[in-house]
Each structure stands twice: as C-alpha cells, then as structure tokens.
Design a protein that fits this description.
By secondary structure, this protein is mostly helical. The protein is 62% helix and 0% strand.
C-alpha cells in the first residue's frame, strides 16, 4: 500500500525512484519505523511530497490502531474492501483499486479515475475526448467480472503507445 501511495498522481518512473529511496531507509517499511521518520527524511531524502508523507503516516497509524487490517481485508468483498481502504486519510478510490489489483489479486476492480486508463480508452475506442471517471466506469461495466484484466490491458496499451516503462522492482 505504501508503494501505491508513492505512485499517486505521478509517472511510473518518478514513483519507482521514490519507492527505491523510501524502501532503502531503515525501518521505513514497518509502521512503527515509518512513524519515527521526520519530514526531512521522508520528503528530503525519499522524495515524498508533504501530503504523501502525511498519507504514509496515516496508513501506518491505521495499521497500528487496527482500522486497517490486511488479513481482514482479504475476507471482504470488493465494495467493502474499497470502503475500508478509502476510510484511511489519503487513500482514495484510485489508491484502493490499484492496491486491490496488484497486491490483493482482485479480478473485478477498475480504477476509473486513472488518467492512463482514460487516455488508453480514448485512443482504443476513438473517443473525441478523454472520458471522465464516471463515463469510464460505465464503459468498464461491460468487462465485469474481469475489469482488473481490462485495466491491465489498457495500462499495457498506454505504455506501448507512449513508450513509458513499467515500475521496476527495487
């Protein structure tokens, strides 16, 4: 989930660079350790923006106080899982959706607020304009129960069209 926060509203390349720096910080990947890091370290060394540093701390706090329990998350349906994740400050529907696709392996999630998905849909379906999130969600309804696969294919298409790389593992 922390890696997904790193990728909010930035390119995969920038997100990968931030993730590599953050994950190299001693203790940063454990809630207690992350909370012990100051802004100079999270922002100055790792490269998180101040809002993302606040979101990371919110995530760590929610893990420690039990509001976010990943074992319990696995037992929830998709709507409940998105609601649990989105209940943490800084974790909206996009962050929840991306986490559920890539970390939880959910098969029917479509983060309709993703700009790359919208751009890819515009290109593939010859739309006049990039679809708004609600319009993109309506389009994706036809792909249920495999919307996660559709999202992956649209992301792949967009990376191919733009020449943008995947996020590399640290």
């Amino acid at each position: 989930m922390l890696r997904t926060i790193c990728g909010q509203q930035i390119s995969n390349q920038a997100a990968g660079a931030i993730w590599r720096r953050l994950s190299a910080l001693p203790g940063a990947l454990a809630p207690e350790g992350l909370l012990a890091l100051d802004d100079a370290t999270l922002c100055g060394v790792a490269g998180l923006s101040r809002p993302k540093a606040a979101h990371a701390r919110s995530l760590a706090t929610a893990c420690l106080d039990g509001r976010l329990d990943f074992a319990r998350l696995a037992a929830l349906n998709d709507v409940e899982a998105i609601a649990m994740l989105s209940g943490v400050k800084g974790l909206g529907p996009w962050t929840a959706g991306v986490h559920l696709i890539f970390a939880e392996g959910r098969t029917d999630i479509f983060p309709s607020g993703d700009i790359a998905l919208a751009n890819s849909a515009r290109h593939l379906f010859a739309l006049e304009a990039r679809p708004a999130p609600r319009a993109l969600a309506r389009l994706a309804e036809a792909w249920s129960p495999a919307r996660s696969l559709a999202a992956r294919l649209l992301w792949h298409h967009w990376r191919h069209e733009t020449g943008r790389p995947l996020i590399e593992d640290p």
